[in-house]
């Protein structure tokens, strides 16, 4: 009988130690954090869709942004020099263009295809400025297909925020070479 009690006691000790190991692993700070994704469109085009490091963001009408968030991107808990983001997006240069509809209100397929033929797709790699506390991934779409990304917990219009651009920016007649 004492052999059985000894085995039970050893099994309990093992399970207790394994449980403590699992709990301590769960409590260890992760180097990466989940971060909502939001966008700011400072142009007269529509941003039909975009991703930042593969995480999708909301569609953005002309001169809109900040109101909708998507979940979730990933950011390092601590900023490191050389931190960058890959941003991909689809742009509609004529978001107010008329597209025919059928008698049921559905988009006319051929007319939609005509309109969508003018969409452009873009991809850039941009630096992420230093942050002290990681937060929302904020993507700014600027004239001439320029993009800026921040990953801090500071809101636009705060003087500490790195990209306080006006929402209504005009596209120049000629864009400078990148």
Sequence-ordered SSE layout with sheet pairings:
Layout (H helix, E strand, L loop, with lengths): L1 H26 L4 E10 L4 E7 L2 E3 L12 E7 L7 E9 L16 H8 L3 E8 L6 E9 L3 E7 L26
Parallel strand pairs: 1-7
Antiparallel strand pairs: 1-4, 2-3, 2-5, 5-6, 7-8
Outline the structure in words.
The protein is α+β, with helices and mostly antiparallel strands and 178 residues long. The protein folds into two domains: 1-30; 32-178. The chain has two helices and eight strands; from the N terminus they run H-E-E-E-E-E-H-E-E-E. The chain has helices at residues 2-27, 109-116; strands spanning 32-41, 46-52, 55-57, 70-76, 84-92, 120-127, 134-142, 146-152. The protein has a four-stranded mixed sheet, with no helix packed on it. Strands 3-2-5-6 form a four-stranded antiparallel sheet, with no helix packed on it. The longest helix is centred in the first third of the chain and has 26 residues, at 2-27. It is globular, with a radius of gyration of 25 Å.
């Amino acid at each position: 009988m004492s052999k059985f009690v000894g085995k039970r006691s050893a099994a309990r000790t093992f399970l207790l130690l394994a449980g403590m190991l699992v709990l301590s692993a769960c409590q260890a700070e992760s180097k990466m954090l989940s971060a909502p994704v939001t966008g700011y469109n400072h142009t007269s085009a529509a941003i039909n869709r975009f991703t930042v490091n593969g995480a999708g963001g909301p569609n953005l009408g002309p001169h809109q942004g900040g109101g909708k968030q998507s979940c979730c991107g990933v950011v390092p808990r601590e900023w490191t020099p050389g931190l960058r983001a890959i941003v991909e997006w689809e742009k509609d240069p004529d978001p107010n263009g008329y597209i025919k509809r059928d008698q049921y209100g559905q988009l006319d397929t051929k007319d939609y295809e005509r309109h969508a033929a003018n969409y452009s797709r873009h991809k850039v790699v941009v630096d992420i400025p230093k942050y002290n506390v990681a937060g929302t991934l904020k993507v700014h779409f600027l004239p001439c297909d320029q993009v800026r990304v921040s990953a801090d917990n500071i809101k636009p219009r705060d003087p500490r925020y790195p990209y306080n651009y006006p929402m209504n920016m005009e596209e120049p007649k000629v864009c400078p070479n990148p």
